Sequence to fold (232 residues):
Amino acid sequence: EAEVAQSPRYKITEKSQAVAFWCDPISGHATLYWYRQILGQGPELLVQFQDESVVDDSQLPKDRFSAERLKGVDSTLKIQPAELGDSAMYLCASSGSRGVANTGELFFGEGSRLTVL
Amino acid sequence: AQTVTQSQPEMSVQEAETVTLSCTYDTSESDYYLFWYKQPPSRQMILVIRQEAYKQQNATENRFSVNFQKAAKSFSLKISDSQLGDAAMYFCAYRGLYNFNKFYFGSGTKLNVKP
Fold:
């Protein structure tokens, strides 16, 4: 069964260090999302890609966060420098394009849990 | 912008009993998707059930069913014969057709299942 792959599953870092998360969406999914989720809360959209283009990064703290999807397939989310408040789960998700075969749902990866010390 | 509201931060149910989780949403669109997602502790978020707004029949997936009230903009999830494995955070989500790639999530309901 097709899955959204994410790595690493867990990352512990010290504040001011750089961290990076990787995501490989389901093959053929043009839309890729990065969400941040604080424990016990709903996911918050950080950035949304359509193919290789950013279509929504309004909630991305651009002074320290960056995201890219250079070839329109896999994607990397980077934080530099990490701050204590960045401790959270970072979820990647993908969705197919509008069409008959699209069931409409969002497919999530297992997430990358970041702890900043 | 569309909003999704889950007014029950936490609920508990006895094993084998039935529980209903509430969700309301606000939209001006006539056609859209609604979803319930389940997120067990430290595990992946997975789809429980989906409903397409143009379908009048309520969706059902085994022990999970929804009560979709389009006029009231209500989309509740009923879990029958609750099992210990149902313990998780449950998120209600909305996807419109106008802005097809935008999802809106509720704040979640934590479901505890008591043995």
Observations:
- The interface with chain B takes residues 31, 33, 40-43, 45, 48, 50, 55-56, 91, 95, 98, 103-106, 108-111, 113 of chain A (CB under 8 Å).
- The mean pLDDT of chain A is 92.
- The longest strand of chain A covers residues 88-95.
- Residues 48 and 78 of chain A are 14 Å apart (CA to CA).
